[in-house]
Amino acid sequence: MTKIISILNQKGGCGKTTIALNLAHSLDISGYKVLVVDSDPQGSARDWNALNEGSILPVIGLDRDSLASDVKAVKNGYDIIIIDGAPSIEKMLIASVKVSDIIIIPVQPSPYDIWATADLVDLIKARQEVMDGKPFASFLVSRAIKNTKLSSEVAEVLKQYELPVLEAYTTQKVVYPTSASEGQTVFSVASNDATVEIDSIKNELIKVLNEFKNKN
Question: Is the pTM of this model over 0.70?
Answer without folding.
Answer: yes
